[in-house]
Write a structure and sequence with these properties.
Strands 1-3-2-6-5-8 form a six-stranded mixed β-sheet, with helices on one face. A six-stranded mixed β-sheet has the order 4-7-9-10-11-12, sandwiched between helices. It has six helices and 14 strands. The protein is α+β, with helices and mostly antiparallel strands. The radius of gyration is 16 Å and the shape is globular. The longest helix is centred in the first third of the chain and has 21 residues, at about 40-60. Helix content is about 25%, strand content about 30%.
Amino acid sequence: MIAELKFPQKMTPEEYLEWEDKQELRHEYIDGEILAMTGGSIPHTKIYLNFYRALYPHLRQRGCEAYVSDVKVKASEKSRYFYPDLVITCDAEDLRSQQFVKNPTVIVEVLSPGTSAYDRGDKFKYYRQMASLQEYVLVDSESISVEVYKRGEGKMWGYYAYGEGEAIALHSIGFECAIELLYEGVTFGNESPD
C-alpha cells in the first residue's frame, strides 16, 4: 500500500497521533506531512498474510511478534510514522506497546508498480536510520521475487535476491522458508485462475 494524498496543513507529531486515532483510514506521517494510505490488491494481501503465517510459529518460540499492516512503526524520535505490510520486533518495550513499534528487527514491504520506487527509495532511507532494524525485505507482488537488505558494518547493507525454487533467509531472527510459501494461492495478472 502506498501513501497517496497529501493533506494541505502540517501537523505536529502529537497532533498527528491524536488525529490518527480517530480516523477510519490509515495515514503515514513524514516530517509534518500527512499521507493517506491506499488499499492493496488481493495478491498483495495474500503475500503478507502468507508471510505472517509462516513466521508465527517460529517467532512464538523466540519471544518475538509479527504485526501486519495496521500497526504503526515510529521511524524517528518525533517526525515519522509508517504502516509497513509486516513488521517483526523482539524488543520487550515494543511487545508491551499499545500504540506503535519503535524497535523493529525486520520490516517487510510488498511491492506493487505504484509503491516500488517509494519503498526502494525514500522509505528505505527512513527505515535505514532505525538502529534496531537488521533486515528490510521487499516482496514482489507480480512475480516470484524477494529481495533482502541486511545491515552490515557501519552504513553498509548487504543485498540478497531470491527467486523461484529458493529458500529465503532472515538471519536476524534465524528464519528460513521456501519462497513459494509466500506466494501460496497468489494468481499473477498474466495467469488464469485455477
